[in-house]
Amino acid sequence: MAQRFYSTNSPGTYVDLKEAVLRSLPPDNGLYMPERVPKLGDEFWNHWRDWPFAELGYRIVSPLLDGAVPEEVLRSMVEDAINFDAPLVPLEENEYVLELFHGPTLAFKDFGARFMARLMGWLTRDDGRELTVLVATSGDTGGAVASAFHDVPGTRVVILYPRGKVSGLQEKQLTTLGGNITALEVEGTFDDCQRLVKAAFLDRELSERLNLTSANSINIARLIPQSFYYFHAARQLPEGTVPVFVVPSGNFGNLTAGLLAERMGLPVRHFIAATNRNDVVPSYLASGEYQPRPSVPTISNAMDVGAPSNFARMQEIYGKEWKRMTERIAGYAFDDEQTRAGIRELQAACGYQMDPHGAVGFLAAEEWRVLHPEDVAVVLETAHPAKFLDVMVEELGEGAVEIPERLACLAHREKVAIAMEADEEKFLGWLQQGD
Ligand SMILES: *Cc1c(COP(=O)(O)O)cnc(C)c1O
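Above: the input record for the complex with pyridoxal-5'-phosphate. Below: its predicted structure, written as tokens.
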């Protein structure tokens, strides 16, 4: 039987793939989980080192979805989505960086967003009407989602971003694609953008008629493809090496995808949750008390999360037992001073430039290796350092970080955005009209 999904708040009640992906968030406010997580078999382990990356991904997602998408469709979906590499780069002895920034928007979010876009397009192919994807963004997510859905047939994307509050290049990533992507420049804050999106979903009639869906990071379709690169990292290590994965974390989708990979049979020594001062999960691992709180701003701002949305999935995986989670995941947190020092140290010791998020991971790996010097650590580098150029220039000086062409060329593209007041009536009125 094709894979089914349940909400962490309602075990025993299942929905199919289409409902889980298009709803994104279950009505009971839990998170969708697959009913069964299969162990990969001999056929996989006999060949996993030889397949191209996309084929490896297909061989992982195929048993997981278990027929929910026809095999040939699924294979071409993965090939289309994962059309860039995730190379493992040696840093120093027993320490590697997994570069997850080789996709179109230079952050690991491309993996999840590109797969989700294609899957949503396919799931709604016979609905006879366009799918409208609404996203509020404070920066990175909007760019990955816009790029992922660009030119996907049958989909239209509306991105809301706060005027003057995203970086220049981030804004260009949202506003220069055209076609099926529309950017709304909201006269307000990120919270205003989220409020407008929520108002649209609460309007049942409108939401039904426009076939509205959300592309937020808790979507199960974003989580699944993120498990691919854990396998891809492991197979780039010397045969037989069982790595420690160090994951710079905010909402913990990335780390949860690693837990999924492990449940499918990937040998992992340990997981390390690395955060900035927003250390709700490292604190929980240390004390057993889960205390979400408002986030504080840092230089690794994609990890400024005070109530990590995937925590419910992590708990589910360990049967809500704190002790069991601590046996598999260690937590470390670092402040901005330490992160900046880490960026400088990496440059001086290894000649490697790591963005502030990756640098938090590097610091965690160093700390772990003091106690476990024999372990082989793989640090996930979640974004290209050029995306955080201000900090990089402050620490390493002008010119230390090369700006990739696909980011640099955006500077010359023309911004097209529709100005929007932070007013629910006006926004809903605009949505009604089409555009
Ligand atoms: C989103 C993001 C993170 C946090 O990932 P989670 O899956 O939310 O833990 C880390 N680094 C960068 C650069 C990001 O964009």
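Notes for the reader.
The longest helix spans residues 356-371.
Residues 84-106+223-403 form a domain with the Rossmann fold fold (CATH 3.40.50.1100).
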